[in-house]
Amino acid sequence: MRMQKSKAIEVLGGSIASAAEALGITYQAVDKWPEMLPGRIDDRVIAALVRKGKKVPAELLVREAKATA
Question: 46 and 56 in contact (C-beta within 8 Å)?
């Protein structure tokens, strides 16, 4: 299961600007994300949440759980 752009933005603060700041990238980079994020961006979103000590929503971890099963 891949993460949707809107969900990633939501968990990273709710705006493109807050998502970009959390990841250390530009607003324009986030704005250009496809609607369904590739795994490398999924991983960056999860890593940013962990670094900030925020809870990672379980639905964002489903892909990882299935891959290891």
Answer: yes
How many domains, the chain? 1
Please report, for the domain that includes residue 30, its CATH number.
1.10.260
This prediction's pTM: 0.82
pLDDT at 1: 65
Q: Centre a 10 Å sphere on the Cβ of residue 43 and count the other Cβ atoms it contains.
A: 14
Which of 31, 60, 65 minimizes the C-alpha distance to 47? 60
Query: Residue 63 pLDDT > 80, yes or no?
Result: no
CA angle centred on 21, ends 51 and 27, rounded to 5°: 140
CA distance 24 to 68: 29
Q: Which helix (H) or strand (E) holds 8?
A: helix 5-11
